[in-house]
Design goal:
With 215 residues, this protein is α/β, with parallel strands linked by helices. It has four helices and eleven strands; from the N terminus they run βββαβαβββαββββα. The protein is 24% helix and 32% strand. The strands form two sheets. It has a seven-stranded mixed beta sheet with strand order 1-9-8-7-4-5-6, with helices on both faces. Strand 7 (126-134), helix 3 (138-148) and strand 8 (154-163) form a beta-alpha-beta unit. The mean pLDDT is 92. The structure holds inosinic acid and magnesium ion (MG). It is found in: Cytoplasm.
Length: 215
């Protein structure tokens, strides 16, 4: 069983005023649900778990842009720290793809993969897919079926967040930072129509902001 830190449905989070939040977002957010420091502490432990399971062989870390970029960068920093401070180490290379499936606050059925090296270069490699959040699981299932056609040696998925939602297909990543309530979350590179990536903490968007930034 994959372990994760559970954020309960009735989790009240923390008042915005207790943290540093950009002025331009002050009226758009209700509460801080996961402070940046807690994200970092949990990510450090995920790095250790990943190296324990995948550390025998060259790892290709595949970042799912744009939402995954913060988690990817911080997770890889922790993996690098393990690599340079222990007797055993593994080469780590990186690649970046874009997957787009969202419009406003709704997941759509149409999942598009854009960019990245030829997927055929993943043959025989240990691939670690790094994603921000799994909601229905459709994005990840689509990506996994594409990757598996390239015959990698191993594919694991690390997602910072997994949403508890009746819309879930049942798909669960191999490594999960936090399991979160069925709300729309922003910050730490998670966006709402491209806004809020420039916010360090993970917060719940308020109703007013959903309208303000709607496209
Ligand atoms: P899925 O295909 O439904 O699992 O959706 C996954 C993608 O939807 C993620 O990679 C995110 O880009 C986006 N997403 C889902 N929930 C949220 C959220 O609460 N905030 C921001 N993006 C989200
Ligand atoms: Mg994403």
């Amino acid at each position: 069983m994959t372990s994760f830190l559970q954020i309960a449905d009735d989790e009240k989070g923390h008042e915005l005023d207790l943290f540093c939040v950009p002025r331009h977002y002050e009226n758009d957010l209700d509460r801080v649900i996961i402070p940046h420091g807690l994200i970092m502490d949990r990510t450090e432990r995920l790095a250790r778990d990943i190296i324990r399971d995948m550390g025998g062989h060259h790892i290709v870390a595949l970042c799912v842009l744009k939402g995954g970029y913060k988690f990817f960068a911080d997770l890889l920093d922790y993996i690098k720290a393990l690599n340079q401070n222990s007797d055993k180490s593994v080469p780590l290379t990186v690649d970046f793809i874009r997957v787009k499936s969202y419009c406003n606050d709704k997941s759509t059925n149409n999942v598009k993969v854009i960019g990245g090296d030829e997927l055929s270069s993943l043959a025989g490699k240990n691939v670690l897919i790094v994603e921000d959040i799994v909601e229905t699981g459709r994005t990840m299932q689509t990506l996994l079926s594409l990757l598996n056609e390239c015959n990698p040696k191993m594919v694991k998925v690390a997602s910072l967040l997994v949403k508890r939602t009746p819309r879930s297909s049942g798909y669960r990543p191999d490594y999960i930072g936090f399991e979160v309530p069925d709300a729309f979350l922003v910050g730490y590179a998670l966006d709402y129509n491209e806004y809020f990536r420039d916010l360090s903490h993970i917060c719940i968007l308020n109703e007013q902001a959903r309208e303000k930034y709607r496209v």
